[in-house]
Design brief:
It is built from six helices and 13 strands. The chain is an alpha/beta fold. The chain has a single domain, classed as Metallo-dependent phosphatases (Purple Acid Phosphatase, chain A, domain 2, 4-Layer Sandwich), CATH 3.60.21. The protein has a six-stranded mixed beta sheet, covered by helices on one side. The protein has a five-stranded mixed beta sheet with strand order 3-2-1-12-13. The protein is globular, with a radius of gyration of 16 Å. The chain starts with a strand and ends with a strand. Bound molecules: fe (ii) ion.
Length: 238
């Protein structure tokens, strides 16, 4: 199975500040790459909008996603799940709770919803029960790890119950976790699972400075290729 992941698109509304003029073009480059790369599934792992909950930004994304591209839309902390559901519906959101799983060949794919900057109790239970079933991959907007504990995102925007979520993952059959939110890329051994953080096409944040500091970047698409229980992942810059 060949999965592509993009995240933290932060699509601006019409008339947004000039320093976000590059964002829509970068998202179009990402989508064009995926559409041309025999994708089995595109996962858009949250933070679709620049203005929180913007329906016009979501509408723009819908118009720019080819119908033929199987896509799962997840909410991030800047999204309104009700707006995503209204615009993308069951075809791309799967269900209104935005947490679900499916099996394909030897692996299970689990998706959870951290819109509230936390993984709620009912989803911790869902994660524990689904993750006990068989070898699994997890998609979650926020990293369940601080990544770099002295960085701006870790200090200001962590998943509130990241330690508790990480413990549930360690006790499960989840081998790899795919996320965004930190606006940078990283692949980290978290002692029990591999964490893969994917960058944003909008702006990149230095993970190692306490002050908010942006960095030069190119838009990237994470590729996740699975065969049996084997997994390969890397970011392709487009
Ligand atoms: Fe986020």
């Amino acid at each position: 199975m060949k999965i592509h992941q993009i995240t933290d698109l932060h699509i601006p509304e019409d008339g947004a500040a000039a320093n976000f003029a590059h964002v829509k073009g970068n998202v179009q480059r990402q989508i064009a790459f995926v559409a041309d790369d025999d994708s089995d599934l595109l996962v858009i792992s949250g933070d679709l909008t620049m203005t929180d909950g913007s329906s016009s930004a979501c509408q723009w994304l819908k118009e720019n996603l080819p119908d033929s591209l199987k896509t799962i839309i997840m909410p991030g902390n800047h999204d309104d799940p009700a707006v995503l559901w209204e615009i993308f519906g069951a075809q791309r959101c799967v269900n209104e709770s935005f947490h679900f799983s499916f099996e394909h060949d030897d692996l299970q794919y689990i998706f959870v919803n951290t819109t509230t900057d936390s993984l709620p109790e009912n989803q911790l239970e869902f994660l524990a029960s689904e993750g006990a079933k068989k070898p699994s991959l997890l998609f979650i907007h926020h990293p369940p790890d601080l990544v770099s504990k002295d960085g701006f995102m870790a200090l200001n925007q962590p998943l509130i119950n990241h330690a508790e979520v990480a413990e549930v993952i360690r006790a499960s059959q989840i081998s790899d976790v795919f996320c965004g939110h930190y606006h940078n890329s990283a692949d980290i051994d978290c002692g029990g699972f591999q964490l893969h953080v994917t960058s944003s096409p909008a702006f990149q944040i230095d993970l190692n400075t306490a002050a908010f500091t942006t960095q030069p970047f190119e838009p990237g698409v994470r590729m996740i290729e699975t065969e049996g229980l084997k997994l390969r992942t890397r970011i392709v810059y487009v």
